[in-house]
Known about the structure:
The protein has helices at residues 2-17, 21-28, 43-50, 52-80, 86-105, 118-128, 130-147, 150-168, 173-189, 191-199. By secondary structure, the chain is mostly helical. The mean pLDDT is 91. It is built from 10 helices and no strands. The longest helix is centred in the first third of the chain and has 29 residues, at 52-80. Helix 7 packs antiparallel against helix 8 (150-168). The protein folds into 2 domains: 1-126, no CATH class; 129-203.
Amino acid sequence: MPVxxxxxTALAGYLLGSIPxxxxxxxxxxxxxxxxxxxxxxxxxxxxxxxxxxGVFVLLTDALKGWAAVQIVALLVAQCIPDxxxxxxxxLRIAAGGAATLGxxxxxxLHFKGGKGIATSAGVLIALVPWALLIVLGIWIVLLLATxxxxxxxxxxxxxxxxATWLTTSHDPGLTALxxxxxxxxxxxxxRNIRRLLDGTENRIEFKKKEAAP
Length: 214
């Protein structure tokens, strides 16, 4: 039964995470996010192509998928397991969060080509390691404001995540292992951004609208 619980949790978490929010929002406007901008279905590309409102909606919804997988899916499965131990419930939450992130990055509905998992991972971290998230969010904000590169902030935050988790969870091995895997996966998904950063061709976020020429 415990193994079945992990399987059901991971499957439900994956399916929840695989809902391609950015793709669906863009399709409502007659746009295929996979063929414009960076080709990514995540919030950053949605922000560039569809505007601030759509970008924020995609960001929050993708984060909600990760949070719900940990807080709702794992809880429902744990309640169905008789005499489930506290440790078992915790590892169900870890399985749900990891599976939701994988679902966002590799959605079965889009031939396993999805987003980079940053927003969904953030939702998972809110539920599991909020203090570690605050640390890496601070790193992300500082680098974004200093460089206007979303990707650079995301890469640095992903690298710092397992260290922040280790420090804020009393060296919990399960949570540190999960955040290490999420961090490595996020950096891997940013490999093209890393190449563009090195080449000096990475796109920057514009905080102010450019004034029209007179």
